[in-house]
Amino acid sequence: MTTIDPISFNLWKTDKASFAKTLGDSFKETGFAIISDHTIAHDVIEAADEASKKYFALDENTKRKYADPEDGFQRGHSPMGTENAKGKKEADLKEFWHTGRKLPANSPYRASMKDTPSVSEVDGFDESTRELYDALDSFGADLLRAVAIYLGLEETYFDDKVNVGNSILRLLHYPPQETPPPEGTERAGAHEDINLITLLLGAEEAGLQAKHRSGKWLDVNAPKGAVVVNVGDMLQRMTAGILPSTTHRVLNPAPERSRFPRYSKPFFLHLNNDAVISPLESCLDMGGRGEPDITAGDYLTERLIEIGLKKA
After folding, report:
1. Contact 271, 161 (CB under 8 A)
2. What topology is assigned to 6-306 in CATH?
3. What is the average pLDDT value for the chain, to the nearest integer?
4. Strand ranges in 163-250 using DSSP code E only, listed in sequence order
5. What is the pLDDT of residues 272-282, one digit of tens each?
6. CB-based contact 275:237 (threshold 8 Å)
7. Please, is 248 exposed, middle or buried when counting C-beta atoms within 10 Å of its C-beta (0-12, 13-18, 19+)?
8. What span, in angstroms and rounded, lies between the C-alpha atoms of 252 and 174?
9. Which of the ends of the chain has fewer CB neighbours closer than 10 A, N or C?
10. CA distance 186 to 57
11. Distance (Å, rounded) from C-alpha 276 to C-alpha 291?
12. How far apart are CA 132 and CA 138, in angstroms?
């Protein structure tokens, strides 16, 4: 496979088994899939886009008051230069915002999951980002039902393992490059995602690439309005490597596009913090290689330390 072709979500509504097989086969081959005809309302996406651009246009001091380095920037603002790909010393050329799950006051998960700060400077920011978070959370749960079918599990296998997961909506801003970027830097260095699956809106601008197991880099060219979905390390670990968490990157733009900013909105769908990541027997039977059990919360902490967002 040298291309990643869009899969219509309409197929899920008429033939769940066929959709699950097409999605699962794409994941198995490349770790990525592109989903068209999704259920996330266009006006919800547009409202979040507008709020995101207004937020990133704020001055640095204002944005930095929403940063929480002690929590590994898991909520609120992450300034330029705070994240690097695992094993790479050069920081990525991006800044971002994190919206996390809204928990009830008596939730036991409050011990490990903070509230998202409220942004007073941008009208509608809190509401529009929360609405997009909820829409992506719901759509991601549907995709996990397809993954469960593909793996020979009950369709609802993942439902009670992600319903209070530490999932994050990231609003990403890659600023214009007025001068050539420092040598060795990229908008986002080659990396794998930590979570279960990632849903990405805003991948129409060129630059996103996935590394096929052959070693070839594949351009991930999503049609306007489509969602790019990729396997994260948690799902790779659960499937004993049967579904690969593929290395991907965002290249610096071509000179003619360098003066344009890039915005995107990945949603990192996480397991509940106390869910145990354990290899599935069916995947071990397919020749997968299991790793020791670990809770999702402990695994997340390990990885945040590795990419520089949290101190050991």
Report:
1. yes
2. Jelly Rolls (2.60.120)
3. 90
4. 168-174, 188-191, 197-201, 208-211, 217-219, 227-231, 248-250
5. 999 999 999 99
6. no
7. buried
8. 10
9. C
10. 22
11. 12
12. 10
The edge-to-edge listing of strands for the beta sheet with 188-191 is 188-191, 248-250, 208-211, 217-219
Give the whole-angstrom CA distance, residue 301 versus residue 310. 8
Q: What is the pLDDT of residues 201-217, one digit of tens each?
A: 976 667 789 998 888 99
- Whose structure tokens read 């909520």? 75
At 249, the amino acid letter reads R
pLDDT at 106 over 90: yes
> pLDDT tens for residues 210-256?
998 888 999 898 888 899 999 999 999 999 999 999 999 988 666 66
Q: Residue 55: phi, psi to the nearest 5?
A: -65, -50
Q: Which residues of 71-84 are buried (b: 16+ CB within 10 A; e: fewer)?
A: bbbbbbbbbeebbb
Q: What tokens were used for 110? A: 């409050």
pLDDT (average), residues 48-61: 96
Mark out the alpha helices in the chain (DSSP H runs): 10-14, 16-30, 42-56, 60-64, 125-150, 159-162, 233-238, 281-285, 296-306
Please, is 264 exposed, middle or buried when counting C-beta atoms within 10 Å of its C-beta (0-12, 13-18, 19+)? buried
Which amino acid, 8?
A: S
Q: pTM (2 decimals)?
A: 0.91
Q: Yes or no: say if 143 and 232 are a contact pair by the CB < 8 Å rule.
A: no
Give CA–CA dist 201/36, Å, rounded: 11
Domain ranges, ordered by start, for the chain: 6-306
